Structure to design on (339 residues):
């Protein structure tokens, strides 16, 4: 079957120069040019408008073979040629006909899939009504260098109400449950309350059968974040970042060996709990929990010179009573210092 057609010859810049008449035949879904008259064909690209068929376009170089496109198809051909450019940008490309640009673009999956980005997360300002109604937990590690007591991880617990932080050093990840039980008993005795809800990621140690049994026995609701969505447990993730930044600065300033990173983390927690924060209207976590101002008289610079009583004198009064050492931090259950 043959179609008669008229064509408008276009230069490479897209501006028309002449008209021509000709015919073509359809064969295997391609249109083969039979004859053409009215203008020189060399070194030009052409647009052909069919007269006896629906409005379609065929691209041809030197009149050899022409492929047929509808307006809709041609729009997406240009979309693909230009690297899947947005259709709003295609309107400003001069070589694309206006009739093609007026077509409504259909939805294709390629662009959304390849250019997909996560939606932004809204900044949460939620605070629980009472202390320890909700706590956020997470484990950081393993660290390449173990501490001098063979710890490789640390468990961070953040109260959603007061933003108070508690940290436990761990040798293994499965030690987290034992640390949680210690924390639960401490809260029940020292503050006369119980933990109602725990939020964590999908770590295996928090989804184990013993951990689930502990939650069920004490009526604790366990919430987990969605897969690859740590932003849903943002409080403890940001606290981890804060702890690592401060502890790293402390260790580097004091020139301590890497094996003392655990002492620096524990000292950092002690300091952060006594620092005002804009999240609490410039109050401290210490003040939110104990309802009194913290004291800063006992604070010293980590890594400074300290003196400890000499435990090896063995009753010899001629031996020195003290030995020089390096100040490492504040033990949580003693009125003393680590050195």
């Amino acid at each position: 079957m043959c179609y008669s057609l008229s064509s408008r010859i276009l230069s490479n810049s897209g501006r028309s120069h002449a008209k021509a008449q000709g015919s073509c035949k359809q064969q295997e879904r391609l249109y083969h040019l039979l004859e053409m008259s009215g203008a020189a064909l060399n070194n030009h690209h052409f647009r052909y408008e069919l007269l006896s068929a629906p409005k379609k376009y065929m691209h041809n170089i030197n009149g050899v073979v022409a492929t047929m496109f509808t307006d809709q198809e041609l729009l997406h051909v240009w979309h693909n040629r230009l690297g899947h450019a947005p259709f709003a940008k295609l309107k400003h490309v001069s070589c694309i006909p206006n009739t093609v640009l007026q077509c409504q673009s259909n939805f294709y999956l390629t662009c959304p899939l390849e250019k997909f980005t996560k939606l932004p997360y809204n900044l949460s300002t939620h605070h629980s009504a009472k202390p320890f109604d909700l706590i956020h937990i997470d484990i950081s590690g393993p660290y390449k260098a173990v501490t001098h007591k063979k710890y490789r991880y640390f468990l961070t617990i953040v109260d959603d109400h007061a933003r108070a932080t508690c940290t436990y050093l761990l040798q293994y990840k499965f030690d987290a449950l034992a640390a949680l039980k210690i924390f639960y008993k401490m809260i029940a005795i020292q503050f006369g309350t119980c933990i109602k809800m725990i939020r964590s990621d999908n770590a295996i140690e928090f989804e184990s059968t013993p951990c689930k049994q502990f939650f069920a026995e004490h009526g604790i609701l366990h919430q987990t974040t969605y897969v690859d969505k740590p932003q849903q447990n943002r409080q403890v993730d940001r606290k981890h970042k804060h702890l690592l930044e401060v502890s790293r600065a402390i260790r580097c300033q004091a020139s301590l060996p890497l094996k003392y990173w655990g002492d620096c983390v524990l000292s950092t927690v002690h300091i952060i709990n006594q620092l005002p924060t804009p999240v609490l209207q410039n109050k401290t976590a210490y003040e939110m929990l104990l309802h009194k101002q913290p004291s800063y008289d006992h604070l010293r610079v980590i890594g400074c010179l300290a003196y400890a009583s000499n435990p090896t004198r063995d009753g010899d009064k001629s031996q020195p009573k003290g030995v020089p050492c390096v100040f490492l931090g504040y033990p949580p259950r003693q009125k003393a210092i680590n050195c």
In short: Confidence is low (pLDDT under 50) at residues 1-21, 37-66. Residues 249 and 270 are 15 Å apart (CA to CA).
